[in-house]
From TrEMBL, chains A, B:
Domain of life where this protein originates: Bacteria
Keyword Lipid metabolism: no
EC number: 3.5.1.87
Pfam family, one: Peptidase_M20
Similarity comment: Belongs to the peptidase M20 family.
Name of this chain's protein: N-carbamoyl-L-amino-acid hydrolase
Domain Peptidase M20 dimerisation: 228-323
Protein source organism: Pectinatus haikarae
Gene Ontology MF, one: N-carbamoyl-L-amino-acid hydrolase activity
Record keywords: Hydrolase
Length: 423, 423
């Protein structure tokens, strides 16, 4: 083995990476839509794991282990004394999702560790790649499952009550079937300080890089996610005989509120806010809606903006209640704070971007990621690549080979910088 | 028998009417809500028919027949040469409906015919009371079933394809079970000119009489009902990563359109318009809605107003499509024209109102009624009584005994005027 130095350039194997991306895309491929169905606990989830294990062990020479929540770990250089640098992403998908989300993060970790191994250089830290269990929203009503268990945000008790909302299958059964050990789930929990750093690659899922025709960006912060469930209580009544002044139409009130919520994004460009789910009661064409409930999903990395936006919303809600003689009830559903990435680790990504002669760019991630959980345990950074048209969670998801290759090289460079700079 | 003259005052038996109203309210009584569950084809529907038949035959002395669609007919004075005056309403209810809707119209017809019979006077026309089959919206997706068959708006073929959307039971099976003969359904069809007139009593279901603290009104016209199904095609996308300028949110577009539709009622006071049913796709809290469809129910007795309102709506739709880069598809679902009541028959109601010293009032009915179908066959009029708070299709539906009695007397007077004035 040789020592790494700034003079020695290790390059990733672009063709191997793209070949594996194609191969991995066969697991869960929906032939009708071209999308990927690789949800937590599916046969495709299990098949992908077997394929990954084979490559990790046979092609890359890693030691593969599976923890109690079925996260897959592949380690390299265990003999070294320092604490490992961990990197990876997830291999599951949303229903009819894309080929890149998660998968490319796992493949990039594999490419980086194999390039390092191929080069014969000696790193200062052991390297461990990870493919997380159940990162995507799924029918078990849990997301970033694997990393939440690692950092202690979810416990054995929490997951013991979860079932597939379609089939009734217990989550614990799915975890065990995938190779985990749900009865010992807490054994997967990691203490702070067991790693040197964590790095995740992900496609941006938005259009910011695509608009500037840039390939990569460092993530500065992962958005906070705040959710409310709003219930509007009006009065169901006859669609013909109820005059305008007697109507207490819950859907018209909801419409006003939806537009006020959309307007938040004009006042605060740091905020993304969405009404995605709505239920109307009784939902009959000839009855004025008496009750409407809907969700608000509000994301920002700037809690001060959120505070101001919610104060404005409160005023609007009071005005709508008064004007329409209806009652609006708010219930907090989720309040997940924003998570800043580690400064040193982000700077390592920025240096690697510079090294590959890419324009410097830092972005807030407006989607949640396993990295947000890992940041509770160790110095964490993320690298984004361009998403063409910003498509995400759909078959049209795409990152071109050129951008994939640039991202993979920056990713490898970042790892080597982290290896060199961190204790 | 004696001849009727203006000098002879026949009065209804208020106590008998109110007693029967209480008795009839036991059929389908929902003990939890106090509402009435007497939907088409239910056991309560059948039980009510048996109770009605008993009273019609034994207490009033009518000849009872059931036609092929299971409408119940009770006739008096068949020996007379003139064509009969027909009057009545329906005995079915919406789920968890009120005690008055339909039922009071049947009971008032019974009270009128019994008062006439008790008085010993001789009418010029045979009298026939009717309780229609399936007037209310129901799970067979048909309303005013009995009268639609009578006037030929529905045929055997039309009803042969209808099934209970919850249980799959064929409508023909329900009709036969209630005493009809679905295989001979067309035998129930009536030609124009087989009756002298038709009169229906109904509660107003709105607040116009209640606001003025008046008891009764003549109906001048039954509203036209126009329904569209609107489909908005936007683009489903990630709730976090999709910036405002990239959103094509179908629910925000629907919200704007709902408010524009509500605004129609400010521009045109003759119009009642409602968005009662809405469906959101994919309807997940973290996905921007890609598709929304909803119903428009627009009612007016003034087709010119409807035309102007729809022209304005078209402009608004085009503006929303352009502004939001979405597609809005409109589909006509129902276009039932308004139906004016017969002038002579309405004047008979107005004279009866005057006779009972009630303030004169004519109203447009904003709900559909069997009378709208009967108006295709004969000179038709309707009498409304006050609905307290306008409550309708709910357990709170109420008309006070005083107003019931006034309405019953005006109703009886109207019949006698029609009997006297019409050939």
């Amino acid at each position: 083995m040789i020592e790494i130095s700034d003079n020695k350039k290790i390059t990733i194997n672009k063709d191997r990476l793209l070949f594996r991306l194609e191969e991995m895309s066969q697991f869960g491929l929906n032939k009708k839509t071209g999308g990927i169905d690789r949800q937590l606990g599916s046969q495709a989830d299990k098949d992908t794991r077997r394929w990954l294990k084979d490559i990790w062990e046979k092609d890359i020479g890693l030691k593969v282990t599976v923890d109690a929540v079925a996260n897959m770990w592949g380690s390299y250089g265990e003999h070294l004394k320092n604490k490992p640098i961990v990197f990876g992403s997830h291999h599951d998908s949303v229903p009819n999702g894309g080929k890149f989300d998660g998968a490319l993060g796992v493949l990039m970790a594999m490419e980086a560790i194999q390039s390092i191994s191929d080069s014969g250089i000696k790193t200062r830290h052991p390297l461990e790649i990870i493919s997380f269990t159940g990162e995507e929203p799924n029918s078990f009503s849990v997301s970033t499952l694997g990393s939440k268990i690692l950092c202690g945000r979810l416990t054995k008790k929490d997951i013991s009550i979860l079932h597939d909302r379609n089939t009734g299958r217990p989550l614990t059964e799915a975890i065990d079937w995938l190779g985990g050990n749900s009865s010992q789930i807490d054994s997967a929990v990691l203490e702070k300080g067991t790693m040197t750093a964590f790095l995740e690659f992900h496609i941006e899922q938005g259009q910011r890089l695509y608009r500037k025709q840039q390939a990569v960006a460092a993530v500065s912060c992962i958005t906070g996610i705040y959710r409310e469930i709003i219930s509007i209580k009006g009065e169901a009544n006859h669609a013909g005989t109820t005059q305008l002044q007697d109507r207490r139409d819950a859907l018209c009130a909801a419409s006003e509120l939806c537009l006020a919520i959309e307007h938040i994004m004009e006042d605060f460009t740091s905020i993304a806010v969405t009404v995605g789910h709505m239920q109307i009661i009784p939902n009959a064409s000839n009855i004025i809606p008496g009750e409407v409930s809907f969700t608000i999903d509000l994301r920002t990395a700037f809690p001060e903006d959120r505070k101001k936006a919610l104060a404005k919303l409160k005023e609007r809600i009071a005005a709508i209640e008064k004007k329409r003689d209806i009652k609006i009830i708010r219930r907090l559903n989720l309040d997940q704070p924003e998570m800043s990435m580690d400064e040193t680790a982000v700077e390592a990504v920025m240096k690697a971007i510079e090294k590959e002669a890419q324009p410097p760019m830092k972005l807030v991630s407006m989607a949640g990621h396993d990295a947000a959980n890992m940041a509770r345990l160790t110095k964490t950074a993320m690298l984004f690549s361009q998403s063409v048209n910003g498509y995400s969670h759909c078959p049209q998801e795409y990152t071109a080979p050129r951008e994939v290759a640039i991202a993979a090289q920056v990713y490898l460079d970042t790892l080597l910088i982290l290896d060199k700079e961190l204790v």
